[in-house]
What does this fold into?
Amino acid sequence: MASRRTADPAKTLEAVSAVADWLRDPHRDQPARPQLAEAVRLTARTLAALAPGSSVEVRVPPFVAVQCISGPRHTRGTPPNVVETDPRTWLLLATGLLDIADAAGAVQMSGSRASEVARWLPVVRIDP
It folds into this structure.
């Protein structure tokens, strides 16, 4: 059985596809919580797999927090490099429907290395 911390590319694409209409049109009904959670978790875990490491923590409350990007390891307390956003903004970034530079106000970044996350996005693409 696969670890719950890994993300299968096919399952990630399937999970994102299930919420894609809502991502393209915010006036549509928000997906059910389990669908939204699955898409958020799998895309964040995909980021962690693509950019392994522990120097930046990406948080998408209430669903997931992952550490990524090689560099100094963080193990306790508040990490020095954090990226935090809401589920919809995260999915827009993770799918390439939104650029991190255009997400001002919706993404909180702290630490000198937090902006490096942008280099690894998107993790999965869907058509606009």
Observations:
- The mean pLDDT is 91.
- The two ends are 34 Å apart (CA to CA).
- The domain at 9-120 is CATH 3.30.1050.40 (Nonspecific Lipid-transfer Protein; Chain A).
